[in-house]
């Protein structure tokens, strides 16, 4: 109908509006109502264009990976109070979409004669505080020089990658090095659970010795069940989709880009929805936990100052 009204607007200098309305079966009052609202529609289009520009900037800053939920959360963090349905409409109209993850094939294979550890988390992929539960996995990155293997350990309380290692071979040492890195950052609690699948890297003697040395507890999911280590595998699917590169020219370039993705974008810049605090980065979630821990420690260590400086005074009878 807007096209009809626009045609009448263009031809009204040549033909009378009433005549055009009869020919096009449009009420004259409806045309004038449309004409009166033209300025409001122009203002809305200008506001949508300005919002679309902001959305485009945020989308590019997210490596073209954010969809509607995280774009809306970023706008709210910038104090832009905008309806989520409006954000969805503008992104749909302008073809702005988030990244979708591809299905990942498992890399690790179970060792034939290794004795697996018990499953200590049972798909309980949450933790009350950082440093209590880690999940680990290993994957490969294709490069022009061959595969680059990436091993990571992720904290379930914050979803932060606390340890990682990249090497050009598929053995246990990257898994051990990544765990050593996580412990070296000083963010693991005593008896922290290190959970993984039953791949040969995780049933190796090298990893078991390192776990004992660090005072941790080893945990493993069942054979052939990707859901028992879903969070660790989900991170690799996210990395391969959102990093924006399918094949690197060499291992050095891949290492640099993966380092930047983990340390600059994922840990410090990428939003995830916390069940209690809303959209925050993994670093911000850890800082929230640390603040709550500090406040709780202050509340429980209030000095018993009452009576500390009070002295009992005894009055002696005055002799006559």
How would you describe the overall organization of this protein?
This protein is of the alpha/beta class and 320 residues long. Helices cover 44% and strands 13% of the residues. Helix 8 (205-214) links the parallel strand 4 (193-196) and strand 5 (217-220). The radius of gyration is 31 Å and the shape is elongated. The N and C termini lie far apart (114 Å).
**Shape designation:** elongated
Order of helices and strands: HHHHHHEEEHEHEHHEEH
State the helical fraction. Answer: 40-55%
Strand order of the largest sheet: 3-2-1-4-5
How would you name the oligomeric state of the polypeptide chains in this document? single chain
Which short descriptors sum up this protein?
IS3 family transposase, RNaseH_sf, 11 helices, 13% strand, five-stranded mixed sheet, alpha/beta, Transposase_IS3/IS150/IS904, 320 residues, HTH-like_dom
Topology overview:
Layout: H1 2-11, H2 17-24, H3 28-36, H4 38-61, H5 68-77, H6 84-93, E1 133-143, E2 146-155, E3 161-167, H7 173-184, E4 193-196, H8 205-214, E5 217-220, H9 230-242, H10 251-266, E6 272-274, E7 278-280, H11 282-300
Parallel strand pairs: 1-4, 4-5
Antiparallel strand pairs: 1-2, 2-3, 6-7
Helix pairs in contact: 1-2, 5-6, 7-8
Brief description of this entry?
The chain is α/β, with parallel strands linked by helices and 320 residues long.
């Amino acid at each position: 109908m807007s096209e009809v009204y626009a045609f009448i607007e263009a031809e009204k200098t040549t033909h009378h509006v009433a005549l055009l309305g009869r020919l096009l079966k449009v009420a004259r009052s409806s045309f004038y109502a449309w004409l009166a609202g033209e300025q409001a529609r122009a203002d809305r289009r200008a506001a949508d264009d300005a919002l679309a520009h902001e959305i485009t900037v945020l989308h590019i800053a997210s490596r073209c990976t954010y969809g509607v939920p995280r774009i809306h959360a970023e706008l709210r963090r910038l104090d832009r109070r905008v309806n989520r349905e409006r954000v969805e409409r503008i992104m749909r109209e302008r073809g702005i979409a988030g990244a979708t993850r591809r299905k990942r094939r498992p890399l690790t294979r179970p060792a034939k004669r290794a004795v697996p550890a018990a499953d200590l988390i049972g798909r309980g992929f949450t933790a009350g505080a950082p440093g209590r539960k880690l999940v680990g996995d290993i994957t490969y990155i294709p490069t022009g020089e061959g595969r680059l293997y990436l091993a990571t350990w992720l904290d379930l309380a914050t979803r932060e990658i606390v340890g990682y290692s990249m090497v050009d071979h598929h053995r246990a040492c990257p898994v051990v090095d990544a765990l050593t890195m996580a412990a070296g950052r000083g963010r693991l609690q005593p008896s922290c659970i290190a959970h993984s699948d039953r791949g040969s890297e995780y049933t190796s003697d090298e990893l078991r010795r390192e776990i004992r040395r660090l005072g941790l507890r080893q945990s493993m999911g069942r054979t052939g069940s990707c859901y028992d280590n879903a969070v660790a595998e989900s991170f690799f699917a996210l990395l391969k989709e959102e990093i924006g590169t399918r094949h690197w020219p060499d291992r050095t370039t891949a290492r640099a880009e993966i380092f930047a993705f983990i340390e600059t974008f994922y840990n410090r810049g990428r939003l995830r929805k916390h069940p209690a605090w809303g959209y925050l980065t993994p670093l911000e979630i850890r800082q929230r936990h640390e603040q709550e821990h500090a406040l709780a420690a202050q509340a429980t260590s209030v000095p018993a100052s009452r009576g500390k400086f009070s002295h009992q005074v005894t009055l002696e009878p005055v002799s006559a």
